[in-house]
Amino acid sequence: MSVVVVLSILLFLFSTVESADEFAVDSIGHRRPQLAGLCAQILQPLGYPCSEHTVQTKDGYILGLQRVSSSSGLRYQKGPPVLLLHGLFMAGDAWFMDSMNQSLGFMLADHDFDVWVGNVRGTRWSHGHIFLSEKDKEFWDWSWQELALYDLAAMIHYVNSVTNSKVFTVGHSQGTIMSLAAFTQPEIVKMVEAASLLCPISYLDHITAQFPLRLVKMRLDEVILALGIHELNFKSNMLTGLIDMVCDGHMDCNDLLTSVTGKNCCFNNSRVDIYLEYEPHPSSSKNLNHLFQMIRKGTFAKYDYGKLKNMKKYGQLKPPVFDLSHIPDSLPLWMGYGGLDALADVNDVEHTLKELQSKPELLYLENYAHLDFLLSVRANEDVYDHMIRFFKSLGKVSSS
User: Fold this and answer.
1) 327, exposed or middle or buried, with CB in 10 Å at 0-12, 13-18, 19+?
2) How far apart are alpha carbons 95 and 380 in whole angstroms?
3) Distance, CA of 183 to CA of 165 (rounded, Å)
4) Which of 29, 172, 241, 260 has a C-alpha 20 to 30 A away from that of 397?
5) What is the pLDDT along the chain (400 residues), one digit of tens a residue?
6) Given 127, 304, 370, 376, which residue is catalytic?
7) Is residue 173 annotated as part of the catalytic site, yes or no?
8) What is annotated as the active site (predicted)?
9) Model pTM?
């Protein structure tokens, strides 16, 4: 298997850019994809009622949201709204990649939850801005900091306003970074009923993933920025060439997926072709740089621009930290993490737990790695049944 194909598979864990002529400008200047949406491509053909929604962030990005109902035919569900937050280089389609009885998105809908599917800026389903083009470098001037404080804030506010109900959230990987950062902000967390975090990440200084550690050591994130590459599209010739260069003579990349995620016990290899129809999605070089800063510095903090620019941006030499103790202990939390996860390392998860005021409900699976929590053939029984029981135990019913 070529490095390019293996790379596409591995990048699904974090989770293609369409050409400019595949987008249109509507009557108020919003650039919107002309391609069929997530509802039409995945959900409606399987009999799940689904509607497309858009929300605008404070900094002008147009995000796609999908609202999904049970295949039973009920238009809206009795249960509370649940917002799904995908990982790096992924989008909302990630929650529907396995069979209907294995994928969390389908399962939540069939348990009568009001499922909302989030898609962060730059991904296929959220590739819009009120005036910027994806060809503009300014379009990609963001990291997970903006995803937490703008994208997640806008999505939660929209779902809250439409349903007139507090929102349950589920995040995987980058989705948990966004969640934990956002929940330190009182104006955001007040709209959240409870949260489930799969492979929770706020600290990354104990990761054992060989491939990312190699890239960190090579300072590849800084090289990419210095080359003027603002969009990270791993289906482009330039970036696949860079990865080939890293693998050639530096490390064995034949088992690239394991070198990033850890050894997944139950990854569904039979569906790789289906995964690759949708993944990976683009992200920004600045986002990768911010994640690598976390690995190098051992902090859970805003983006580090350097001392002078930090003073201008933040009024201090070092970027402000996201203080996990500011997450109210009244917010119910559920966390699932694995003993073989090379990214959400057990030591880092324990660091997160020590800083929280509350004591989350925990599910620890010794033989699970990073991708298992999303694509294990047994995740429905091993993980999702536990999560759904947690949500239902809170006894909340949407008033929508």
Assistant:
1) buried
2) 12
3) 17
4) 172
5) 333 333 444 444 333 333 333 333 333 344 444 457 999 999 999 999 999 999 999 999 999 999 998 876 555 556 799 999 999 999 999 999 999 999 999 999 999 999 999 999 999 999 899 999 999 999 999 999 999 999 999 999 999 999 999 999 999 999 999 999 999 999 999 999 999 999 999 999 999 999 899 999 999 999 999 999 999 987 655 555 655 565 555 555 446 778 889 999 998 777 777 887 888 899 999 999 999 999 999 999 999 999 999 999 999 999 999 999 999 999 999 999 999 999 999 999 999 999 999 999 999 999 999 999 999 999 999 999 999 999 999 976 443 3
6) 370
7) yes
8) 173, 341, 370
9) 0.88
Do residues 343 and 370 lie in contact, with contact meaning Cβ atoms separated by under 8 Å? yes
- 365 neighbors 198 (Cβ within 8 angstroms): no
Question: Is there a catalytic annotation at residue 372?
Answer: no
- Among 8, 15, 69, 173, the active-site one is 173
**DSSP-assigned beta bridge partners for residue 51:** 67
Which of 220, 251, 265 lies closest to 372 in space, CA to CA? 265
